[in-house]
């Protein structure tokens, strides 16, 4: 089957979803009011609360939520065949992610621009807030540990990408200085840096001396490394230490010095990446060689599919962005549909191209099964397959394959590094907040909180032996990522449902995806915690068992709270113009 | 055509600069807050030998002070020395 047909089908469903379903939700359920004074106007302070053009806000929202996760999840979920992954991405985006992202935006706008965490604090008490902090803490710890491994892995697998990525750091600092101190515009300098990076990519793809290949320096894969480790393990060790030191600086320096300029160089890469891949797809018209459905999987798609494709369909992190920054900048309440729902559609498009890239990469179905032989194999090779598949599509518009591999790996590294920077910074904030909450002021200090964040992530990466060898310790708790992320989305949907109920509106449209998500999360957790990781399970793992059991109890508690709050009789519907 | 292209570029640049502008504005605001504290430190009990001179800036700072206490969630001025509202 032609991949173009599948892509077009996806576009049509996304279009119909936005045109009709989102319109229905906006008018009948959320009842957006063009005359409502949004927090951006009410509290306009020129900094956080600023009324912003809806197209600009959409661009910002989309670049904030799009990262490496919507690429990674679908690339792995292809293990069950392209159809299940495609259907969940399409339907999940239209019926769950769109409603969720859009809903958290509206909920926050109607609550003075507060974040979902604060709203949870008000709706379900202080324990709700601590639950949020705990889940986010686990999430960011996992993200730090795993993304450090992902970047190190890409550096080792595609050594030509190292030089351009390293080059970006001093150039970004230079741009930050120019924009902040000299007040120059940022578009042209950041495009120049991007061009320099790509020229460096072309050069390092051609000339071997520009490739920083640590494994080769130590005598190849069989060579000896440091501290009695092999060459590959030593390379992992060096890159991970480098990344952790980098994260420390990136998260403590003022953001305009490194993070912001790096982000705005990287935000072009999203446009470049999506354009190259979709153009490549339409020029080469490849056939889908991955099976429609994998008939003999070693792990059932139910419920794992919904946990594996995390950010591609619905993600709790989107709710944090929606209610954290976007809600404070919404000019008119009616813009929420475009920003929130269409933002989710943008993410869906990224997940869709990830599916099509991997599904068209293999010469035939047998070749697919030799790489995707088991669920664990799919997990291990999903990202690298995406990079190579993307280089084939890029070849369709005339980019030579070696250069394309380098450019695509730079794009993926950049996405992963942006996520890593943000997530270390986020972890620092959470540790500080916990310090304030539990009256341990030392924890609130920048360098103390950052040291804890970086050292705990580094310890998780390096100390235990992970499933993918040395340096992959983060993968030990990675199975919890999908579930905790979906759980976060479930809590947000629950908050929206409770709010809608109290307004006396029909809340079925948020309740159904909420039940679906919480059910799938609990199903997956129950199966993994009690049948796999437990002492009597098939794959005993005490660390996962304990953490998984804690998250499972939280999920159960949320489900019970939701049931209690949603079955409670509210005699007096609240005034929708009055914040709760 | 060129106009449309220019509009598109302007839009793209605005998307790019939105988070950056926020961040710069926040840093500037923090600097302003520290400056404000230096000027009016005497009013919150921190001795300031140059208070006599900084007080002369009072009429120029009053609007900014008003914005500050609103931003901090206080409807009325918290300092009896400054009655801005």
Please give a quick description of this structure.
The complex is a heterodimer of chains A (580) and B (85). Chain A is an all-alpha fold.
Question: What labels would you give this structure?
Answer:
heterodimer; A: 580 residues; mainly alpha; B: 85 residues; elongated
Description:
- The complex is a heterodimer of chains A (580) and B (85).
- By secondary structure, chain A is mainly α.
- Chain A contains 22 helices and no strands.
- Chain A has helices at 3-29, 39-42, 54-65, 69-77, 82-109, 116-124, 126-157, 162-181, 187-206, 214-217, 231-252, 259-284, 301-308, 316-324, 336-361, 365-371, 375-395, 401-437, 446-462, 479-502, 508-533, 542-567.
- In chain A, helix 18 packs across helix 19 (446-462).
- The model of chain A has no long low-confidence stretch (mean pLDDT 86).
- Chain B has 85 residues and is mostly helical.
- Chain B is elongated and about 60 Å long.
- In chain B, 8% of the residues are buried.
- The mean pLDDT of chain B is 81.
- Chain A binds chain B through residues 45-48, 50, 52-53, 55-57, 59-60, 63-64, 179-180, 185-187, 190, 254-256, 260, 263-264, 267, 325, 329, and chain B through 9, 11-20, 22-27, 29, 67, 71.
Number of DSSP helical runs of chain A: 22
- Average pLDDT over all residues of chain B: 81
The poorly predicted ranges of chain A are none
Sheet-strand content of chain A, in percent, reads under 5%
Task: For the record, give the distance between the C-alpha atoms at the N and C termini of chain A, rounded to a whole number.
Answer: 52 Å
Q: Mean pLDDT of chain A, nearest integer?
A: 86
Question: What share of residues of chain B is helical?
Answer: 55-70%
- Portion of residues within helices of chain A: over 70%
Secondary structure class of chain A reads mainly alpha
- What are the secondary-structure elements of chain A, in order, as H or E? HHHHHHHHHHHHHHHHHHHHHH
Strand proportion of chain B: under 5%
Number of strands of chain A: 0
